[in-house]
């Protein structure tokens, strides 16, 4: 009990410190704002015409959200690697503080960055014709799922940082997996059109699940030409997405914490 | 809770009482640590009594930083017994962390936070509440002469200011033991003097301190006892005076203009000073211990002039780590550690790297 209290208190101290850092480094936030804008415009108007016009633009938003938040894992990776490189992690590790607090404080603070990304994406969506069609309750549930998802992937970012140990390596490792994971998915297209193995990957990809669940909750239908996805993950997108988040946290959080405890700066 | 302090160990004369009580604030026995095939620490033993300052003196790669990392629970030992403030780093690292404050080789301050915010954060992570960590931060900023810049971001601080802030962070919770890893490496002479003053005041408050350094002069200034380490083991221990008396307090270096002059210069110096001069023919340099340095230098110059030996350089200097090493091991300390403090910036940065890479 008291150790749980200590963990919460220490994490909130670290989260507060991280937030101050984020606010005082406005340049670093440009990516999290500019990227969703860029992808919305690119996909909506470059690909959108071919893929289904207005309806595709509505469909797109769920995918952009899932993609952008996955990309935000790289912020976790870079910020944590920077603390490691500067020796701050050494100081934290020599303090009588809770062992998971540094990373928990990181992922918590990164939720704020993600909220900003979500807000920007939805504003862009509104501008190009996206709407909430299912009422406020499901929309809030969608928001909750998105936050859970971004919290989960930031633990992946933490593992990348603690493996990489330097900002440069964390930057490239933190980016490279994002492209296959976000593009081999139903975020922007129908997975039905992909060849066998890719399709299987895409169908079970958590990014697909999050995008599909969010669309369902917002009430955004796929364009007419899109083959309807089938299979258990597609039929139970919300449940599967939540399970994926839980699984990612269950695997990557203990991994990150055990790495943190043993790490030594180069 | 933080700031735990055993009252009877407080105060400077605790050091002397400690001698009789037999309690060691830091006790290291048979400590070994390997990195791959490289033996960074090889049966290292250390004793630090309460209130005492131990200087761990050695060249780059000797194992100083590795020792610090083990003592502060950042690195697990491969073998040996290490207790800090009575707690084992192996079985009770949490209590060790409550008892220590660490200031590392690289000032670990958050550049985006102000000096004040940095200290409040550290205080809270030691378990202090908002109010008492704020009060403590103000007190320390004042004590470390950082009040004027308390509201400025640490990124804008000078090297010396950052180091002071980092040192302040190490003592936020009034730990029983403070561990300082190369506290002045990379600082300019002024920053070095500032930092020395701060460390001296810590010492005055009766805190037990272990500090690592590459500079005999620094250990001499700050430490009660010095342990010289090389290749991961202690090769000599004693007070600064004891070590220096083995080396000779000051040294005279003379560089002859011509190689023929080297032997004649050596003969003159041998006559004036104590002990046999060391001769470095390639540098045409003769070096000798000079217990009464100032007068001996004047006399030496007079005689050299008198006998017509041309000299391009004559210096009186304090013994360096290199002299200690030469005396203790018959070998020079690694070349980059040899020049005294003025070269700090160029020499101090490769340590971690070297230990881990090898």
Descriptive overview:
The complex is a heterodimer of chains A (266) and B (358). Chain A has 13 helices and no strands. Chain A is 80% helix and 0% strand. Chain A has 266 residues and is mainly α. The model of chain A has no long low-confidence stretch (mean pLDDT 90). Chain A has one domain. The two termini of chain A are 35 Å apart. Chain A has helices at 2-23, 26-51, 53-71, 73-86, 88-94, 101-127, 136-164, 167-176, 178-183, 196-204, 206-218, 232-235, 237-262. In chain A, α2 packs across α6 (101-127). Chain B is of the alpha/beta class and 358 residues long. Among the domains of chain B are: 7-111 and 173-244, P-loop containing nucleotide triphosphate hydrolases (Rossmann fold), CATH 3.40.50.300; 250-317, Alpha-Beta Plaits, CATH 3.30.70. In chain B, the strands form 3 sheets. In chain B, strands 6-7-8-3-9-10 form a 6-stranded mixed β-sheet, with helices on both faces. A 4-stranded antiparallel β-sheet of chain B has the order 2-1-4-5, covered by helices on one side. In chain B, α4 (115-125) crosses α5, α6 runs parallel beside α7 and α10 crosses α11 (293-306). The A-B interface holds A 6, 9-10, 13-14, 16-17, 20-21, 24-25, 86-88, 90-97, 101, 262, 264-266 and B 2, 69, 72-76, 94, 97-98, 100, 102, 104-113, 117, 121-122, 124-127, 153, 169, 352-353, 356.
Key structural traits:
heterodimer, A: 266 residues, mainly alpha, 80% helix, B: 358 residues, alpha/beta, Rossmann fold, Alpha-Beta Plaits, six-stranded mixed β-sheet, four-stranded antiparallel β-sheet, 14 helices, 14 strands, 23% strand, globular, disordered N terminus, disordered C terminus
């Amino acid at each position: 009990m008291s150790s749980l209290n200590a963990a919460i208190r220490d994490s909130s101290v670290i989260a507060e410190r991280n937030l101050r850092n984020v606010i005082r480094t406005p340049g670093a936030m440009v990516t999290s704002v500019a990227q969703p804008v860029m992808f919305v415009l690119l996909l909506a108007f470059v690909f959108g015409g071919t893929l289904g016009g207005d309806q595709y633009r509505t469909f797109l938003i769920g995918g952009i959200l899932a993609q952008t938040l996955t990309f935000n894992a790289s912020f976790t990776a870079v910020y944590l690697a920077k603390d490691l490189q500067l020796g701050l992690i050494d100081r934290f590790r020599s303090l009588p503080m809770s062992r998971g607090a540094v990373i928990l404080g990181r992922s918590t603070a990164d939720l704020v960055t993600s909220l900003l990304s979500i807000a920007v994406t939805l504003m862009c969506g509104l501008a190009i014709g996206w709407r909430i069609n299912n009422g406020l309750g499901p929309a809030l549930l969608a928001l909750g799922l998105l936050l859970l998802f971004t919290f989960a992937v930031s633990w992946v970012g933490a593992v990348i940082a603690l493996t990489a140990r330097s900002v440069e390596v964390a930057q490239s490792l933190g980016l490279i997996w994002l492209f296959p994971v976000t593009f081999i998915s139903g975020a922007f297209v129908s997975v039905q059109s992909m060849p066998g193995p890719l399709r299987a990957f895409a169908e079970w990809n958590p990014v697909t699940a999050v995008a599909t669940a969010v669309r369902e909750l917002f009430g955004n239908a796929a364009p007419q030409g899109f083959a309807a996805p089938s299979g258990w993950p597609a039929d139970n997108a919300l449940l599967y997405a939540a399970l994926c988040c839980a699984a990612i946290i269950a695997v990557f959080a203990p991994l990150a914490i055990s790495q943190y405890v043993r790490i030594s700066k180069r | 809770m933080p700031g735990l302090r055993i009252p009877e160990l407080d105060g400077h004369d605790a050091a002397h009482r400690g001698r009789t009580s037999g309690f060691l604030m830091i006790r290291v026995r048979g400590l070994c640590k390997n990195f791959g095939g490289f033996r960074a620490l090889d049966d290292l033993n250390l004793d630090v009594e309460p209130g005492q300052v131990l200087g761990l003196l050695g060249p780059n790669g000797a194992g100083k930083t590795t020792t610090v990392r083990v003592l502060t629970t950042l690195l697990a030992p491969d073998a040996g017994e290490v207790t800090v403030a009575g707690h084992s780093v192996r079985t009770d690292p949490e209590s060790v962390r409550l008892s220590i404050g660490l200031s590392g080789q690289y000032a670990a301050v958050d550049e985006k936070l102000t000096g004040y915010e940095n200290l409040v954060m550290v205080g809270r992570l030691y378990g202090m509440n908002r109010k008492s960590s704020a009060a403590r931060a103000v007190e320390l900023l004042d004590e470390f002469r950082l009040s004027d810049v308390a509201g400025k971001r640490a990124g804008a601080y000078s090297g010396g200011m950052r180091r002071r802030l980092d040192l302040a962070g190490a003592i936020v919770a009034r730990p029983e033991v403070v561990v300082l890893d190369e506290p002045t490496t990379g600082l300019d002479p002024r920053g070095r003097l500032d930092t020395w003053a701060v460390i001296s005041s810590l010492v005055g408050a009766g805190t037990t301190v272990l500090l690592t350094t590459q500079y005999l002069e620094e250990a001499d200034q700050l430490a009660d006892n010095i342990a010289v380490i090389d290749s991961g083991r202690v090769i000599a221990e004693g007070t600064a005076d004891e070590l220096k008396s083995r080396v000779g307090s000051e040294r005279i270096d003379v560089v002859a203009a011509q190689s023929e002059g080297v032997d004649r210069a050596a003969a003159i110096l041998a006559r004036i000073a104590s002990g046999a001069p060391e001769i470095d023919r390639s540098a045409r340099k003769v070096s000798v211990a000079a217990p009464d340095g100032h007068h001996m230098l004047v006399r030496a110059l007079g005689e050299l002039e008198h006998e017509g030996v041309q000299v391009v350089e004559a210096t009186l200097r304090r013994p360096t780590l290199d002299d200690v090493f030469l005396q203790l091991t018959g070998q020079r300390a690694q070349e980059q550690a040899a020049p005294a403090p003025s070269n700090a910036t160029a020499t101090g940065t490769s340590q971690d790297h070297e230990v881990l890479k090898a």
